[in-house]
Amino acid sequence: QVQLVESGGGLVQAGASLRLSCAASGGIFSNYAMGWFRQAPGKEREFVAVSSWRGGSPFYADSVKGRFTISRDHSKSTVYLGMNNLKPEDTAVYYCAAELYGLGSRREADFDFWGQGIQVTVSS
After folding, report:
1. Contact (CB, 8 A) for 102 and 54
2. CA–CA distance from 84 to each of 32, 38, 42, 54, 113 (Å)?
3. 84 near 17, Cβ under 8 Å?
4. What are 37-73's pLDDT values in tens digits?
5. For residues 124 and 55, what is the distance between their CA atoms, to the nearest angstrom?
6. What value does the CA radius of gyration of the chain take, rounded to a whole number of Å?
7. DSSP-based helix, strand, coil % in the chain, nearest 5
8. Alpha-carbon distances of 76 from 25, 29, 40, 57, 73, rounded to whole Å
9. What is the arithmetic mean of pLDDT over 10-29?
10. Collapsing DSSP states into helix, strand and coil, what is residue 110?
11. Residue 22 pairs with which residues in a beta bridge?
12. Using an 8 Å Cβ cutoff, are 49 and 70 in contact?
């Protein structure tokens, strides 16, 4: 069983930057694709970014491409989501997720483990 714990959220103004962290434990980190999803108030959860277990280029939602960066530190079993030029529409609860031997799926159903979520609020 893999446990995922997010951190780094908060309240920022539009145009600011944040970096979310997700620490994984209980599994072999390098065997998992790691993804980020988010859920805004009144909306369904949506894909943000994913990094395949094999490495290579990550995938991003069009809405965050060029502003967000997903990265992994295998020595710390941690995945990060760097967020620049934040907009009010980025306000959401952000979730970290892990998929065993995942190749970069954007589908929630493909992910095996989820974090509890962390709030990011961007004020205008």
Report:
1. no
2. 25, 16, 24, 26, 26
3. yes
4. 999 999 999 999 999 999 889 999 999 999 999 999 9
5. 36
6. 13
7. 5, 50, 45
8. 10, 9, 29, 20, 6
9. 97
10. helix
11. 6, 79
12. yes
Question: Which amino acid appears at position 98 of this protein?
Answer: A
Q: Token pair of 106, please? A: 């954007």
The two structure tokens encoding residue 95: 């979730």
Task: Supply the pLDDT for residue 56.
Answer: 86
At 45 the pLDDT is: 97
Alpha-carbon dihedral sign for residues 33, 120, 107, 4 = positive
The sign one gets for the Cα dihedral 66, 18, 56, 37 is negative
Q: How far is CA 23 from CA 2, 10, 31, 124, in A?
A: 10, 17, 15, 30
pLDDT of residue 55: 84
pLDDT of residue 71: 97
Helix ranges (H only) for 7-113 are: none
In angstroms, the Cα distances linking 15 to 10, 67, 89 are 14, 10, 12
